[in-house]
Amino acid sequence: MKTGIPPATPKPMSPHLPDRIIIDEILPPPGKGTRPTESELAKFLAKWLDDFLRIPGTDFKIGLDPIISLIPGVGSSVASGGGLIILIEAVRSGVTLPVLLRMALNMIINTLFDFIPGLGPIASAFFKSNSRNLSLLQSWQTGNREAVRRSTFAMFLCIGGFFALLISLLFALWFFYIWLLRTYVFTG
Asked: Can you state the percent helix, strand and coil of the chain, rounding each to 5?
């Protein structure tokens, strides 16, 4: 059977392997003549996971994340998998570790909501971790890196202050129990 297309002749392979591979030629780092492009996949996932359906009569939208999370175990894993792809896009864009940790914290908070029976998916619908992470990624990619760094530093400072307050309250409570035991139980 003739198709009119001549058969392809294989190209001979070079007998020599390159001495070195320059990774910057294969995957140029941000800032070296290339600018990271906005990820269409991250936008697609954030829309479907957080803003897919509009509640009739309102401007509030929910996504598949809180709906899928109604399925115990499996739903949370599937929704977190979609959010993980947004984190991978952030790594490819070269975000700093604190910003990446902030994005991971958004995902962890969203996952913790799923452990609250009944109210978890509702809280997840309002929290919208994927849209938050997409916003951080887009701000980073458009050149607002300094603003993202400052807000990330402020957030970690607040979390650190919260944990310091919590630890100091636990120590104060512990000392109060010791005082209570010494005063009323062991005095007599």
From this structure: 65, 0, 35
By CB atoms closer than 10 A (0-12, 13-18, 19+), residue 86 is buried
N-to-C CA span, the chain: 108
Tell me the pLDDT of the chain (188 aa) as tens digits: 555 655 555 555 555 655 665 554 444 445 544 444 567 888 888 888 888 888 899 999 988 888 888 887 677 788 888 888 888 888 887 888 888 888 888 988 888 887 887 888 888 889 999 999 998 888 887 777 777 777 777 777 877 887 888 889 888 988 988 888 888 887 76
Please state the domain extents for the chain.
Answer: 35-143, 146-188
Q: Hunting for tokens 């994927």 — which residue is that?
A: 130
Answer yes or no: are the C-beta atoms of 68 and 53 closer than 8 Å: no
C-alpha Rg value of the chain to the nearest Å: 26
Query: Using the 8-state DSSP alphabet, how is residue 62 labeled?
Result: E
Largest CA distance in the chain: 108
Rounded alpha-carbon distances, angstroms, from residue 118 to 63, 80, 83, 97: 17, 18, 22, 34
